[in-house]
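Message: I would love a firmer grasp of how sequence relates to backbone shape in proteins. Thank you; the sequence and its tokens follow:
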Amino acid sequence: MKKLFHRIHIVSIILFSSFNYSQEKFIPNKNNETQILIDGIISEKEWENAISVDLDYEVNPGNNIIPKEKTKVYVLYSDTHLYVGFHAFSKPENIRASVRSRDDLGMISDDFVVIAFDTYGDSRNNYLLLSNAFGSQLDARAINALTDEDRYDINFNVDHETSGTIVSDGYQVEFKIPFASLPFPNGNNQEWNFNFRRNTFREGIPIELRSQKYDRTAPCQICQTTDKLILSDIKIDKRVEFLPYLAGNITGSKSNLFDEIKYQKLQPNFGLGLNVDLNKNSTLEVTLNPDFSQVEADVTQIDINSAVALEYPERRPYFNRGTDIVQYVSGAFYSRSINNPLISTKLISQGKKERLFFLTALDQNSIYQIAGEDRSYLGEGEESFVNVLRYQRLLSKNARLGFLSTNRYYKNGGYGNLFGTDGWFLLSKNLRFTYELFLNLNKEPVADWIESEDNIFGRSVVLDNQNFNGKSLYFQLYRNTQKWRSYLTYRDFSPNFQADVGFVVKNNRRWATLYHAYQVFPNKPALQFLSFGTKADVLYTYQDYLKTISVDAILSVKTLFNTEITYTLDFDAFKNFLGRDYRNLESNRFVIRSSPSESFALNLNFTVGRELAFNEAIPEKGKELTFNFIPLIQLSNKLRISPSIRYARLKYLDSDNFYYNGSISRFSIRYQFNNFFNIRIISEYNTFSERFFIQPLIQWNPNPSTVFYIGGNQNSLSEFNDDMYSLFRVDQTQLFLKFQYLLGI
């Protein structure tokens, strides 16, 4: 019995203890609303009552050393706003800055300052407000994600003012942040965790400064936002926002090569969004007949050798707000599976101990996806009704549990139900455990959405009213120290696992991954970071058939000119695809990211080796060559261009013939008149499909919700006559406009 109590005591310590970092309390003074003019100039008279905070630590590449450049931050507040001013000392000629539109990720190549808030003090998320020297804005939510790729949600928005100016001894930025636009607990007296940051460059090397010390080895980065900002007697207003929009488009096309383009009638469209603060913690959103037309065209992915559907990022603001809580490694939820909703409602609530997300939608054109062992099947069909319920409970700062339920009911019968649980546990300062467990209960509709005669373990791909159920399991044990980074991951998808409101392309697999890497931070100009690791994967089916044995060697370095280079040797000792065995598939992958100056940046991906021709009737090995070359050229602080080319080929092993050989060329040019108004043109030529398009767009975006744009699409196709195909011939055309305006009460 004593041993039992001892074990219970140890578990309780792990789950409910806190691994605390140093903290300091700051109590700013209160001013009136008219005292500060947001003009990018920190005048002594306006900020005379402000408290000041110094950025005393260089946390990258230096490890909590004294910075070489000084940064002072000034803080004031009123009944309704928080005011923050940065004075970043530097030689003006060394400052990187360009005028950018809102949430332009190119800002990470600029000098910029950051305000980080953890308003709930629960280490679940940070609200990040960024600005460069011209006052351009980028706001994001940093979350304790299961993967590094999902750590930042840039679709999070805070409606606030910024202004920046380059001065003789550096640059200054002023923030005016309405309390109404920030999520935080109820109450007029607040205690927020926060810190301030600055990113700059020294001889082309990125430098990060912070107001707090930072432990780069900790598996929880946002747990280190621990300084306290004390605010008293603030005013909390409930917001009621109306988002009406008016849109219209005219399209034209022709049926034959020599026909004139025939234009259809103007297609007007209108809709309404409503956002209501039920209280400070809870917001209800309703959207009726939303316009989800893409302002920025999706970057076309090369899918000619893919046996499964490809996942695209979500660009629709409605589905991005609050959905960070439903990001799963298992693909349990995928917002773009809700394809064309007529009406949707969303409830988001966050307290000190729990978070709730509830979404309903009437989808007019439902996406239906079936996962298989080696292939996936995709179709689009009728109306469906969708529900998503997500609940997360905070056990402590270092432990949380969650629940998810998704439901999809099809108009003419059939359903897909999924439910499960997940957890996140910080077991020690360097050790983290996460898991996901889901079950699905499904009944197929009777439909002709998918044309295939294939069978999946006794179940036909044809949608014929069959019942089936499945499960998935994911867990990871992750450890990070100053010199070592390791994780053990296990994924389990049963043969009939399916997520009708998610994105699951393969199942019938039990997959274990072990990764171990050595890492050092020399902090030298020529070698700022070095990591060498190995990764081993073993994959079996539920029938105990071996599918994959793979070993990777991974080398990463960060060197001169703000350049990161990663080389991966991927060796598949064994792979089974569609019942056939293949051995010794080897590929060499290089990834280079560089931003040597404010005028130029590039991403380069290059792969050469052996790969399967997955879409052949009988897949065979071939010689693979792929590369993506994506430069970004800043011609002035307002004008930039970005040409790119993505190329892929697979050549026969014993001849000069190709399974496929083609490229996608893309060109983008953007002129940013100011932080809110820009014009851009995108063109793309796809040799795989012989399609060319050009998309001009004029956009005005003064705040996250108000937008006006007018643009068009001009398409050239080869489907009428390949011999007479021309890039300069227009076969399809479209002109569209949209005006959405935020009305706040």
About this structure: The two ends are 62 Å apart (CA to CA). Confidence is low (pLDDT under 50) at residues 1-18, 145-150. The longest strand covers residues 580-597.
